[in-house]
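Team,

Forwarding the record for the chain on the shared tracking sheet. I've put the sequence and predicted structure together so nobody has to dig through attachments.
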Amino acid sequence: MRAQTIAGMLLLTPCLLAQVGAQKPVPNLELRLLPGEMVNGVPQTFTFELINVSHHNVWVADPAVQCDDSYDGSLSLRVKFTPLHPPGSETGGGCAADRFNDPPILERAREWKLLPPGERIEKTAYFAELHYEVRQSGTYEFWAEYSPAYVQPADQQILRERGIDFPLEQLTTLHLAFKISH
């Protein structure tokens, strides 16, 4: 009986290890959105923070704010508006930019910022730069999204072989809600 139990455990071990290995990796970065000075109940600035929450260095391309950029990644402010007197709501934000003929990955990585544990990239954007308007009474929900620089699978392997850790996960903050009544 004991031999059968041990044999069963040995057969299950690879299955369990495969399941553990298949789990989604824990992100090395945390994204935070901090509202700035308030005017008429609405933040006039937002600060985006990308914080290294791991126990090792992480290399991060310097992300663009409020613009989709697959080369360096992007930090975007999203907004959902729910009018005080319905109908409807709107979601919006963003622009797009891209580059072609990327240089080799090790050359690109030289431009990235080294974030030791606990360090952060901080970017503050002003109301006029964020592509949102506050004209109507209602609830405005804001949240931030981070899209890391796109790195092709073959280039990911090159970076890993050289011990360079870098973000691959998209991140989203919690929603911050502000009620406005004119």
